[in-house]
Specification:
heterodimer, A: 307 residues, mainly alpha, 13 helices, 69% helix, B: 428 residues, 75% helix, disordered N terminus, disordered C terminus
Amino acid sequence: MSHLLTISLVISALHLALPIVMPMLGGLISERSGVLNIGLEGMMLIGAFAAVLVTYFTGNPWLGLIGALISGVFSGSALALMTVTLRGDQVVASAAINLIGAGLTAALIPVIWDIDGLTPSVAKIPTIAVPFLSDLPTVGRIFRSLSLVDYGCFVLIFLVWWILFRTDAGLRLRACGESAESADAAGIPVVRTRFFAVMMSGVFGALGGAYLSIVTLDMFQASMTQGRGFLALAAMVFGKWRVWPGAAACLAFGFADAIALRAQILWRDIPHELLIALPYLLALFAMATFVGRASGPGAVGKPFTRA
Amino acid sequence: MTMNATTSPSKLAAVTADGRHARMDPEIAAQTLRADSGDDGWNRTDLLPRMIAHFQGLSGQFGTRVLTFILTIAAALVASVPMIWLAGSELWLTASALFGGALGSGPAIAETMVQMIPLLIAGLAVALAFHASLFNIGVEGQLLFGGLVTGVVGATVDLPPPLLMVVCILAGMAGGAAFALIPALLKAYRGAHEVVTTIMMNFVAIAVSEYAVAPTGPFVAADQPSATERVPEGTQLPIIWDGTRLHAGLIVALAAVAIVTWVLYRTPGGFRLRLLGANQGAARASGVSVERLTIIALLASGALAGLAGAVQVLGVYGRFYSAFSPGYGYDAIAVALLGALSPVGVVASAFFFAVLHAGSVPLQAIAGISREMVGVVSGLVVAFVAAQPAVLRLLSSLRRPAIDDDLSDLPPEPQPATAKTASTEMPS
């Protein structure tokens, strides 16, 4: 066990949790505004792909990150157009985003790089050593192995919590999710708020994808998100649509992932094919055992039109 | 239902309050109620039921259905044209590669039918769950696990071949249903969204099936990596078109269509299932056990998905390969939605996707377009299906103000008769 629980396990759990935390925040923003978004997986793939594409052609991973965020604006707006503006079915529309995201990214790899399945490697976002903190014994390793994106993600978690639950704008957004009619009666522009929320969920999903492709790895691989967009939704439900519990659930999935990766090196007799399923089983277990029924914001799934 | 009851009195009050109708006219009341259950009611009901209502509204109007089907396909294909240009190919070359490859000759048509079989059965699985307002996105995992169970039973159980074939198919169905059980229980008793749970089960299914036939796995074949042992001679589904791969799975698939149609539209259970899908409150009020029916619907859907896997394993390969499904379960979502959830419609849309699948091989070889484009087209089909109610609403709202404008141009005292003729002459 002492070989398993090391500081590098913590680091790898963090690296595996953050690409689930970001889409979790996206799903949270969207659902708090009243729009169910199961299209995060597709948005992540598009973001991961855009990040590698831009990095490949510019050589600068930071531009790649910006490219991913812009792709998130587009994929989020596409879902918002279908669900908020046209009032189409939210589940079906997000399923479309998932299918298009998976198909389009896989189909574009051979078009651009003439190879199937995965792209050549590109520049990664570099890790930085925090002065002083990185010189600490044991814990110092954490501060040597994180990049600015990681710290940015921590700030984003706090920002989303603060905006959603401590500001008027957040209150308005949540009002749209609890009862669109009441929010409308109070003068809140429901359609505009929801459109913006769904668009932001696309940006967060894309950020999670870009994290996988240019922070954790240095390339894009077809279907590389491996269901993290859905794990994020499971974490959000487990956290009962709140920021910190949701992030904690993501961290738990990250640990499950990290343990699965580590265990296949340490104990060779455990079949690693089964260990890969660990985070998904944990997610199912979480949804089966959490206290109380899963009940999201009151107006989730209901499109809004003014009477 | 309850919403209408609470909103209509206020509507009636509004009518009386604005002074035009001091006396409550029963006809006006009836009109108000109709208006309430119409456009206004749309945004108050849950989403999937609305979608299902939209599909069920299409039923009976055969022409509308065919038109919607063709328009959706056309829109998706037109939207994928930029991809053809991106790949540096020509439109005509692409079309001839695709349709020539899928329908150009006898063997090509047989191969298209082979592709159609799993898409059809898996599409039925998705459609069946959709009728109960359940989005079974886990068909891929259920299909994979059903195929694994079929392969393992076929390779290990000692029975005379024809009997073994039946046992294999039933085992595959049971395997598919087993993989739908956990999401079904979580949905019924914990309210966990089935989309998330069934997706989780997909990844579990991939892990389990890769483990089963891994180099050290318990069921791996001695002569073939990532596969189970071949099923005994005579256990495979027989070939029904000599010289091609077309197997009796086609008959199984069409039988499944007939059975699902009969169950959905001709049995009390099917009626309750559709009632649950259309209006859960009404279903509960009329004595349906929502929990039980939810579980049954997801298990039946899983069993169909398992059947798709079993038929593919027994009909095409004669053994289970861990990579035997190129995402049939995900394409099945598009198949079901494009078919407007009707079993017969699913046959038509499964054929369309089979053409795409069968044509994608020559498409890659001749036009240099990746096979993954099939996934893009199915995504676009789903997107356009999601937009269908909105488009229909848009069309009707475009038509209505046009008539109003026309009426305002009429002389001061608009006779009902002239208004009517104006509205019928109006569409230009």
